Each structure stands twice: as C-alpha cells, then as structure tokens.
C-alpha cells in the first residue's frame, strides 16, 4: 500500500510541470557550471562550449530517466536527479592538460564500464572507501579546484587585465551576494542561490560592458547529437585509474542518496535495488563518454527538494528529465550560459569548490571517529600527499613510468594513500560497513533537508 502511495501518478499536470521545473532549477547551476569550468581550463572554442553545455543538459535528462524508470536490469526506481559528478572536474582538467581531450572520454567510458561490470559487488568494493577515505578524497579534490576558481575570478590565467578592479569587483561581489542569499533566504530560494548569483553578476557585468552576446547570435536553434564530437577516445592507464577512483567515490555518495530517499519514502532498499541503481549510473557514465559530456552521479540537493516539497512521485522527476532533454536540443538556450563572464563564474566557483571541501570535511566530522589517532593520521597523510603532489608534480618526474602512475597524480596518490593506510590501521571493518555509512549519510541529509524546509 505504501509503495503504491509513493509511486502513484500526480494528477495535476500544471503543478507536475512546475515541480519538475523546480527540480531542474535546483540542479541547473551545477550542471552548467561544470562544462564552463572544464572548457575554460582546456581552451575550448565558443562553438565547442555551446555543444558541451547542450549535450551535458541532454545527457543529464537521459541519465535521470535511466535511473527513475527502474526495471529488473537497471534503475533504482526512486525520484532522483542525475547531473555532472563535481568530483570529476579537477581530474578531467588534469587529464586534458596532460594527455589530451580524447583521453578524458576514454577514461570516462572505461570507468562507466567498470561500474556496470562490478555493480553487483560494489557493496564489497565500497568497504575500501569508508568515510575516512571518502572524506579525504573529496577534500583533496575540492582543494585542487580552488586555484581554478581564483584564476577565473581574476579574469583568466594569462589575461592582460588579470586582477583588474572590474574583475575583482564582479568576482567578490558575486561571492558576497551568494553568501547573503544563503544567510537571509530559506528553502528553494537558498538552494538556487548560486544560480541567482550568476544571474545577478551577469546583469551587473552587462552594465559594465563585460558581457559578450556573440555566442547566442552564432548558436543555432536546433542540433543533433554527435557521438565522439571531440574525436575518437583514447585509453590510457593513468586517466582510467583516476576516473575509476572518481566513479567509486561517486557511487559511495550515491549510496547515501539512495538510502536517504528510501528513508524519506519509507521504502526498504535491497542489495538488488542498489545494484540496479549502480548499473544505471554506470550506463549513464558510458553514455557521457560516448557523447563527449561528463560522468554522471545522483544529485543530493534534489533529495532536499523532495523532502521540502513533500512531493515524492516519480512523474515529477520524469518531467524534469524531459525538460533537460528538450533544452539540450536547443543550442540557443545552452549558449545563454556563455553570457556569464569569467570573473562572475570565478566568484561563484569559490563558493562551489569551497562546498566540495566542506563536503569532505562534513563526511570526516560526522562519520569518522576523530578521537582515534589512527584516523587523524590517515587524513593527515592522504590529504598531505594528494595536495603535495598536485602543487609540486615535478617531484616524481625522475621515477620509473610504473611508479609515476601512482605518484604523478595528486588525486590517485592521495586516494591510494588513504586506502592503504585505512587497511593498515583499520582493516576492512565490519561486513555492514557500506550500510552503516549509508545510514549515517542518510541521517545527515534528512536533517539538513528538514532544516531547509
């Protein structure tokens, strides 16, 4: 009876549409900011950026529908939204700068296949990623992104007017605006404070003559999907290992989201339900690689929206996924995101990337026993290793090629340090480790979403 009540179809089309649009707005900033950051770092043209944003939004919609339309093979069948995995931003930039764009998409495809193949045993694999490891990895990823934000805030690395008063005024103005929005608003408005900040900053930049309307004029009204838009993918071991680590961290986070929704909906999730969810996420990652977009993961902010609106039916999420697909076929709409000047984006990214760091700290602070010296030592060494290799990558330039696979990338070095030290000090833990982590993640998410309501 409860299951029927949870999944009954919403009977008010206008309200269903508006609620679906609300879910799109809640995740839109994250979905759009990721391609803006990656394209800026890798020097994509305006045309390439327009395609990347459009195909990303379309892929977000497809990935969401794959997850929400559950069947016996894939899809958790819960009202969840999927979007770009923010953890993948820094690794994608590093891979693109060192091995080329083709290696990014080869690594994404390989990591998606990894998730697909091992979806049935991810419960055991996740035991290698308890909160002390996951929290450390997320913290490392966030810290490596902060310099990207400040470079954009200053006007872009290498820009002649880098650090000019206009750039600093816009960048820090947007950051202050987002802080004030977060302080003095609640509920849904707070959840889209970054999106509102980007809009307000762009309007202010327009009055200063800092907005370029060329991308909108040049963009077409409709385009078709082009698999391998950036060329044939290449498969290299270091990028693949990096993206597999990112995928495992994303799956660990998705487990918490699934369990949180299960708790909100009074639905007990089985291991088969979780495996279907992982499988759908793996398939979404593979599609992201084929269509040259991004790896995809479950967005936790939409869980808070489900709790806040008290609307728990899947048809609202189907509408949201459909809206994303429609938007993805219209490059004119995707080009709107290109109006955002780099300094405005940089100001918002300081908050966004800081939230990635604070997310890692939250995992450590709420789910890790910090009274144990061993856990403190794991965090210290793994974060120190990851950040050190990122800041001084030439340290291991003289090491053998096989060693550079482990030592030449800060995220890999930090992650494997955390995994190895956790096994050394804590072993594999109990067999219910994954479930315990998910439950603790659930309590935190439900509490947070309740406060926002």
Automatic annotation (TrEMBL):
<keyword id="KW-0812">Transmembrane</keyword>
<dbReference type="Pfam" id="PF00860">
    <property type="entry name" value="Xan_ur_permease"/>
</dbReference>
<feature type="transmembrane region" description="Helical">
    <location>
        <begin position="237"/>
        <end position="262"/>
    </location>
</feature>
<dbReference type="InterPro" id="IPR017588">
    <property type="entry name" value="UacT-like"/>
</dbReference>
<feature type="transmembrane region" description="Helical">
    <location>
        <begin position="49"/>
        <end position="69"/>
    </location>
</feature>
<feature type="transmembrane region" description="Helical">
    <location>
        <begin position="102"/>
        <end position="121"/>
    </location>
</feature>
<feature type="transmembrane region" description="Helical">
    <location>
        <begin position="128"/>
        <end position="150"/>
    </location>
</feature>
<keyword id="KW-0472">Membrane</keyword>
<feature type="transmembrane region" description="Helical">
    <location>
        <begin position="316"/>
        <end position="337"/>
    </location>
</feature>
<dbReference type="GO" id="GO:0042907">
    <property type="term" value="F:xanthine transmembrane transporter activity"/>
</dbReference>
<dbReference type="GO" id="GO:0005886">
    <property type="term" value="C:plasma membrane"/>
</dbReference>
<feature type="transmembrane region" description="Helical">
    <location>
        <begin position="162"/>
        <end position="181"/>
    </location>
</feature>
<feature type="transmembrane region" description="Helical">
    <location>
        <begin position="402"/>
        <end position="425"/>
    </location>
</feature>
<feature type="transmembrane region" description="Helical">
    <location>
        <begin position="76"/>
        <end position="96"/>
    </location>
</feature>
<feature type="transmembrane region" description="Helical">
    <location>
        <begin position="21"/>
        <end position="43"/>
    </location>
</feature>
<protein>
    <submittedName>
        <fullName>Purine permease</fullName>
    </submittedName>
</protein>
<feature type="transmembrane region" description="Helical">
    <location>
        <begin position="343"/>
        <end position="364"/>
    </location>
</feature>
<keyword id="KW-0813">Transport</keyword>
<dbReference type="InterPro" id="IPR006042">
    <property type="entry name" value="Xan_ur_permease"/>
</dbReference>
<dbReference type="InterPro" id="IPR006043">
    <property type="entry name" value="NCS2"/>
</dbReference>
<feature type="transmembrane region" description="Helical">
    <location>
        <begin position="376"/>
        <end position="396"/>
    </location>
</feature>
<keyword id="KW-1133">Transmembrane helix</keyword>
<feature type="transmembrane region" description="Helical">
    <location>
        <begin position="188"/>
        <end position="208"/>
    </location>
</feature>
<keyword id="KW-1003">Cell membrane</keyword>
<comment type="similarity">
    <text>Belongs to the nucleobase:cation symporter-2 (NCS2) (TC 2.A.40) family.</text>
</comment>
């Amino acid at each position: 009876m409860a299951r029927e009540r949870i999944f009954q179809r919403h009977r008010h089309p206008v309200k269903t549409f508006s609620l679906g649009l609300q879910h799109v707005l809640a995740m839109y900033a994250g979905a759009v900011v990721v391609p803006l950051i990656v394209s800026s770092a890798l020097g994509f043209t305006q045309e390439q950026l327009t395609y990347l944003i459009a195909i990303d939004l379309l892929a977000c919609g497809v990935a969401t529908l794959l997850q929400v339309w559950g069947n016996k093979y894939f899809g958790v069948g819960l009202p969840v939204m999927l979007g770009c995995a923010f953890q993948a931003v820094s690794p994608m930039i590093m891979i693109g700068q060192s091995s080329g764009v083709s290696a990014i998409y080869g690594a994404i495809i390989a990591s998606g296949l990894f998730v697909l193949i091992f979806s049935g045993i991810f419960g055991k694999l996740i035991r290698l990623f308890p909160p002390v490891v996951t929290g450390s990895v997320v913290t490392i990823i966030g810290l490596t992104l902060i310099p990207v934000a400040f470079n954009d805030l200053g006007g872009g690395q290498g820009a002649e007017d880098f650090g000019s008063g206009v750039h600093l005024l816009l960048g820090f103005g947007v950051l202050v605006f987002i802080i004030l929005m977060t302080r003095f608003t609640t509920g849904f408005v707070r959840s889209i404070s970054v999106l509102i900040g980007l809009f307000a900053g762009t309007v202010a930049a327009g009055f200063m003559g800092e907005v370029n309307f060329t991308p909108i004029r040049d963009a077409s009204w409709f385009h078709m999907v082009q698999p391998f838009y950036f060329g044939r993918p290449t498969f290299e071991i270091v990028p693949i290992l990096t993206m597999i680590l990112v995928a495992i961290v994303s799956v660990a986070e998705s487990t918490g989201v699934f369990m949180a929704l299960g708790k909100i909906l009074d639905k007990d999730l089985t291991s088969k339900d979780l495996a279907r969810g992982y499988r759908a996420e793996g398939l979404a990652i593979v599609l992201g690689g084929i269509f040259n977009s991004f790896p995809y993961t479950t967005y936790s902010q939409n869980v808070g929206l489900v709790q806040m609106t008290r609307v728990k039916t899947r048809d609202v999420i189907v509408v949201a996924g459909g809206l994303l697909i429609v938007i993805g076929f219209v490059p004119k709409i995707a080009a709107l995101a290109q109006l955002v000047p780099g300094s405005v984006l940089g100001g918002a990214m300081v908050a966004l990337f800081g939230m990635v760091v604070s997310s890692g700290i939250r995992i450590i602070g709420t789910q890790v026993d910090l009274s144990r010296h061993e856990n403190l030592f794991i965090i210290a060494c793994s974060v120190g290793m990851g950040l050190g290799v990122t800041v001084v990558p030439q340290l291991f330039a003289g090491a053998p090629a096989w060693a550079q696979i482990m030592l030449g990338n800060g995220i890999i070095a930090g992650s494997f340090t955390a995994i190895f030290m956790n096994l050394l000090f804590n072993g594999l833990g109990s067999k219910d480790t994954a479930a315990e982590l998910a439950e603790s993640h659930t309590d935190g998410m439900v509490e947070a979403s309740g406060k926002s309501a």
